[in-house]
Design brief:
- The strands form three sheets. A seven-stranded antiparallel sheet has the order 3-4-2-6-7-8-13, with no helix packed on it. Strands 5-1-14-9-10 form a five-stranded mixed sheet, with no helix packed on it.
- It has five helices and 14 strands.
- By secondary structure, it is α+β, with helices and mostly antiparallel strands.
- Helix 4 crosses helix 5.
- The structure holds 2-acetamido-2-deoxy-beta-D-glucopyranose (4 copies).
- The site of one 2-acetamido-2-deoxy-beta-D-glucopyranose (NAG) has 3 residues, from loops.
- The site of one 2-acetamido-2-deoxy-beta-D-glucopyranose has 3 residues, from loops.
- Residues 1-22 form the signal peptide.
- Keywords: Signal.
Length: 235
Amino acid sequence: MPSANRLNTALALLAAASTISATSITFHNTSPSPICYKVEFTSGTLPTQNGVTCDSSPGLMVQGGQNLTVNSSADYNGAITAMVNNSNVKGGRYEINFAAQEGNCWYDVDFHLGLSDGTLGPSSHQPLVNGNPSLAGEQDCLAKANAAWPSTTNQAALLAYPDYLKQGTDGKLDFVYMDSNAPQVVIDFFQLQADFTAYVDAGSQAGENSSAAVVKAANFMSWVVQAVNMEIVAF
Ligand SMILES: *[C@@H]1O[C@H](CO)[C@@H](O)[C@H](O)[C@H]1NC(C)=O
Ligand SMILES: *[C@@H]1O[C@H](CO)[C@@H](O)[C@H](O)[C@H]1NC(C)=O
Ligand SMILES: *[C@@H]1O[C@H](CO)[C@@H](O)[C@H](O)[C@H]1NC(C)=O
Ligand SMILES: *[C@@H]1O[C@H](CO)[C@@H](O)[C@H](O)[C@H]1NC(C)=O
């Protein structure tokens, strides 16, 4: 007969095992187009699909209107990048770290290599550990940019970069784009005026004379939520 202590140990191990296997990431692709999610990691594992390659890396293909849940290891720490526009353009990068703190997820959305309409947060939609709202990213980048556009005083300077912003005949923006070559004026617009809930500036070198965008990105930081089931929604 097992002693009470051994039984308790066995039960504790079982509980720990079920906590570990419950770590997951769910993808909801509410857009009509397929999205190839490029998977990278610095620790742990996240199973990818056989034969799926996104931007030369293993990945997960989620068809338009479909959902997918994958169980990661409890120590997964990595980045998942949405490849949009028929998988040839980098969109939002979702940085997810279950490894830093057991039972918690540290995360952020990074738009500094590409923009796409998508959010990241706990599947439970519970608030962050600090009580703030937990939804990172943007459901509609173009709409958010347009909300800021009428009060933007340097429109001409921005429209000088048609690779990144274009204005339609109605005066509204009809195209927004980001990549690693974007000029600072464009980065500042998305980070400060449009106020995207994501890193647009890399924010890594905030110092004495930093620009406002660098300071804002540095203050955005990673968020932490007491949850191990995360959800990426594409729009
Ligand atoms: C993921 O883990 C849950 C238990 O937490 C399990 O029910 C489910 O079958 C697992 N899914 C896969 C694909 O392994
Ligand atoms: C995907 O998930 C959403 C939210 O849970 C649900 O409403 C929808 O029916 C699911 N779609 C499919 C195709 O299962
Ligand atoms: C999306 O792909 C089309 C070709 O399929 C291309 O013409 C267009 O420039 C791409 N969009 C971006 C933002 O690169
Ligand atoms: C910040 O700017 C001031 C004034 O231009 C300059 O004296 C100082 O060296 C700069 N500091 C750094 C860290 O670049």
